[in-house]
Amino acid sequence: MIKNYFKTGWRYLTKHKLFSFIHVFCLTIGITFTMVVGVYVLNQYNINRSLRDVENQYIVKSNWKNGELGLDITTLGPLAKTLREEYPLLVADYYRYNPVNNVVSAGNKHFVEDIAIGDTSFIRMYGFPIRYGNTDRPFPNNHSAVITESMALKLYGKVDAINETISVHSTVQGEKQDYHVSAVIADIPFNSVTYLIGDNYSVFVPTEGNMYYGFEDPASGWDNPFEIGMIQLQPGVTPADLVVPCQEVLAKYTPENIQQNLTVGLAPVKDYYLNDNGGAARRMITILSLSALFILVMAVINFINISIVTSSQRLKEIGLRKVFGGAKQQLIIQFLSEALLLTALAALLSLPLYQLLRPVFNEILNTQLDSVFDFRWTTYAGLSALVLVTGLLAGIYPAFRLSSSPVTAAVKGKIDSAIGNLTLRKTMLTVQFTLGIAVFIGTLIVSRQVDYIFSKDIGYSKDQVMVITAFPKQWDAAGVKKMMDVKHALTELAAVESASLSFEVPKRQPPNAFGFMLATGDSPQTMIHSIGVDQDYAQTFGMTVLAGSCFAQSGGHIPNQVVLNESAVKALGLTPETAVNQKLRPASSGSEVTIAGVVKDYNYSSLQEQIKPLAFFHVQDWLSYRFLSLKLRGANIAETIPLIKQQWEKLVPDAPFEFSFMDDQFAALYQSELQLKRAADVATALNFLIIALGIFGIVSFTLTKRSKEIAVRKVLGAELRHLTLLFVKDYTRLIILANLIAWPITYWVTNNWLEGYAYRISQGLGAYLLVCLLVFVLAYGLIVGLCAKANRANPVESLRDE
């Protein structure tokens, strides 16, 4: 019997090729996009699932009342360790690390690597597999290092690097600290522990006895709020159980200022990736999932609408089946079988289409989607469930509605009396238009915000600025002088317009903030983020100096000077004109500093953040640096890069030449926005393709069924506009209603999204009216085109056969 159902269904589908094609094509689009989104979402949810005992793993975060005192992602150096030692019944283990980036050497090989200076518990705590070395004791002493397989291959050309020696450059007097490789671990997949701040760690060294900063154990000081801390709770213990212990530890070991300003929070590692960065990943998942759902729903709506419209062709078949004893249940199974057959065919076509489009979506979503050949059985089970649900949703209404038609009406082929009025079909068309309009408007809003981001005057020039990572890091007077000499040598190249040595470039909010007040009078303390730069920083980045200068006075460097931005000047109660030569007194102990100049506010981080007070100290006072930025002249950058590299290797032979361009770093700040824009563009195109196919199918069939009516109208003098008006008036009402529904919903959603930006576009009617107009153009264009084709037909041919 089942075989007969599918055989009958296949014959009907092959007989009506156009409508079968529309059914399969729309369902294929919907299932393919759903597969892409489904695999992406599963991969996002599975991040961190490979970590051992992830349900009990937490990141120790800091909630500062005064946000300038520290970062939320880091904590006090000894805190995680102290919680484990003093509350062992609550805390099972801990791991802390200090993220650094410096040169790692093996003989004459030098590579810039991300290095984690941390506790030796990380392998035990997270279960990273050891390929070579002692699995029970990967760190036998403080002179041991654990490296990844990829790092071993880079340094030694082999994976088994046990007992090999590596040297890690420190920031003190150009010294190096030697380590013996005691273990080689497998390359670590992306996770929220070792990729917490976006780095990819390949070298792990102990924090105890570490001399990277010139003093042992960077994690030992309670005055260091910039250590990354993790803890593992005992089974059954919750973060709420740690509230009081954290308060007791702070009261016991920290000064009153920290106790009053700091609240310790625990963020679960298992879903930290989804909630990090204001929940950007979770929002992306939600938006993509809704887009996939919308596309699949519209494909199902097309199936139902076209099935209803074309059902008159099957009413006589239904009537005859009933006359000869066919049961209603058999008819329902027949129609459901046909819907499942079409959906299964669409799913089979979706597999190669997914594989073909996988590289495209990998680039759009900046991910690595699984190949169909690597799908697990659970993925195929999910796809099968999707096919079953989609097929049932698409076929269940036509099946029950058509099978319920009265025998007399069905035998006569009276569609109106057999299936009732057109309320359902018009409702579903309205839903289709509403979803398409909402997605289209949302895409335009996202595109406008992204365009605004990349066109806004951010207060500095990012074009043709090469940022070289300045190595070796020797953070003392001699090291700064050496790197300044390198800078001056590079500026002698004809292609280099200017250069600047600094600790930061405009891509994030500086982590260091200090309290300052005017030296004269009784002014309140102002927390000001601070960085080290040199006298060419403003020129290299094209910043506007409003008053004074950016350390560019004659006579060279003058100690204890500071340059402020507009926000800092305003926070101190000054103006750019009155600020120059004013003296500031640090809230902590230290020498007074003189304001040398004021620069115009610029966006030193994402437009999601407000510009805050900022102070520049001369790099020779700051005594630390990380970047050497070159402003290049000329258009042929490809020829300039080898010249700069050649000069760099001559000046700093043991430091790799690593660089990026400022405009690429700026674009990286808005990677999620760019992904969202590209994904929304795809979703919009697919939505309107499905809508267009739906309109095409319904209008085509309706014109075919009314061919005799059209012929009679033509004979009686009707013109194309009269024929077109028959369809246009129905679709006009539906589109207007869809807009009235979509506009307020879309405004609320997009406005909530825009509120995540401190600097954003304002919503007007323009985007909404434009989408409304384009939808009318799409619908009217299809209707007019199909009506024109029908109008050209010879009425004699339609009236010949009665």
From TrEMBL:
Sequence ranges assigned to domain ABC3 transporter permease C-terminal in this UniProt record = 291-406, 686-788
Compartments where found: Cell membrane
**Highest taxon of source:** Bacteria
- Cellular component terms per the entry's GO annotation: plasma membrane
Q: Which residues form the MacB-like periplasmic core domain?
A: 20-241, 434-633
Report TM segments: 21-42, 284-310, 331-357, 377-400, 427-446, 685-704, 731-750, 765-788
Gene Ontology MF term list: transmembrane transporter activity
Q: Please provide the record's keywords in A-Z order.
A: Cell membrane, Membrane, Transmembrane, Transmembrane helix
For this protein, the record's InterPro entries field holds: ABC3_permease_C, MacB_PCD, Macrolide_Exporter_MacB
What is the membrane topology listed in the Swiss-Prot or TrEMBL record?
Answer: Multi-pass membrane protein
**PANTHER family, per this entry?**
ABC-TYPE MACROLIDE FAMILY EXPORT SYSTEM PERMEASE COMPONENT 2, MEMBRANE COMPONENT OF TRANSPORTER-RELATED
Name assigned to this protein = ABC transporter permease
Q: Provide the species name.
A: Parapedobacter pyrenivorans
Mind giving the lineage of the organism this protein is from?
Bacteria, Pseudomonadati, Bacteroidota, Sphingobacteriia, Sphingobacteriales
